[in-house]
């Protein structure tokens, strides 16, 4: 339940629903989501509490949403005016080509893939660029001018985008490789004489290509680098409430294989301003070979248990229970009359008084995962008081309690939330201020009190959920959750809403 206590909080969770469709600018799923992925443990030596993976399907989604904006970006390539002299049909011709503007770009065929050990490959094939411009020539005693359209076909781009750790626990990207090549050029002249085609074929075509070709890769590299400021917005240390914050930082370098882009996040809760490590560590675990979703997030029990450690250290794992918290239809009341049936000395010493219970954790709860099952073992104390007419609390007894709780976990938008059910409780006597107590006689009473007063409070907190790490308005869609051995696996598709990010492949 790594990510669940990744979202587990004080008494447990906090929720937020993210829905709706999404419009993505050009922020690469494989960059933005490269943020979220599992890490090469050999490189870091540290086991992550959370592992995430971007699959080939995620890369394909990014390719689809990126092609149209990239086409628009390529239209901004600047081609400077050109002039010179050339010998055409034994004539010395002075020429000027000006006001060249790209009018059309069509990236007909594109694909993305994984480059093990590096990042992502992008290939664009059989693309074309169409541009218009003006021409002017002077030869002998004649001036001539007109305009032309130039069609560049067979354009190919090959780029490799590396994914790295910026040293601050955030991902970064860089252009590891880029090449662009152009196949054929066709020109149509408007005005002038047919012999001018030789001038264009021999001189101007190559000049245009020489000016155009390097700018394609420059544009790609610039776009890749411009993503890094946005990757740095990843909330690697996110405040949950006044007690806790979650560390989402990467614990090593991203690991890229044919299965996906993996990275590991620390996935650990801390007290705000006080980062004390718990007396337990994350154990290694591996993601299953699933690829039907764009992204997989594995949340280990360590993350959840670190939340329990933090809130227990903060001293907030307790709850006072009074009779007004018990429904009117309950067969038991929180008063000395009810408890006097099982412990006669209470009715004798404190007749007709209301009672108050203090339920307090003795240590942090322990969460474990087995296939299709999540359980939490909690130990604590139940201290009973009689409320005197002057509001003074008179202690009656202290019980030691061990409880087993099962949980339902679900994803709500960009958060993980939950709901718990009390399975069983076992109580032993700690201290009695009212003589002998047969603790087993109190089981039904206290179980009813816990179900009516404690469990609803816990579930109200769990319903609020805890956020997953994200950049911008990232939405999860078609989400599925599985409880496996030692972790919870979330498989999801991803969309982005209203991102004001630069056009990036």
Description:
- The chain has about 500 residues and is of the alpha+beta class.
- It has a domain of about 160 residues: Bactericidal permeability-increasing protein, domain 1 (Super Roll), CATH 3.15.10.10.
- The protein is built from nine helices and 23 strands.
- Strands 2, 3, 4, 5, 6, 7 and 8 form a seven-stranded antiparallel beta sheet that branches.
- The longest helix has 30 residues.
- It is rod-shaped.
Detail the topology: elements first, then pairings.
Blueprint: H1 29-32, H2 41-44, E1 50-54, H3 56-74, E2 82-88, E3 91-106, E4 109-115, E5 119-139, E6 142-165, E7 171-181, E8 184-190, H4 196-225, H5 228-231, E9 237-239, E10 244-247, E11 255-257, E12 260-265, E13 268-271, E14 295-300, H6 301-313, E15 318-322, H7 336-342, H8 344-349, E16 355-361, E17 366-370, E18 373-387, E19 393-412, E20 415-432, H9 443-462, E21 466-467, E22 474-484, E23 487-496
Antiparallel strand pairs: 1-12, 1-14, 2-3, 3-5, 4-5, 5-6, 6-7, 6-8, 9-10, 10-13, 11-12, 14-23, 15-16, 16-18, 17-18, 18-19, 19-20, 20-21, 22-23
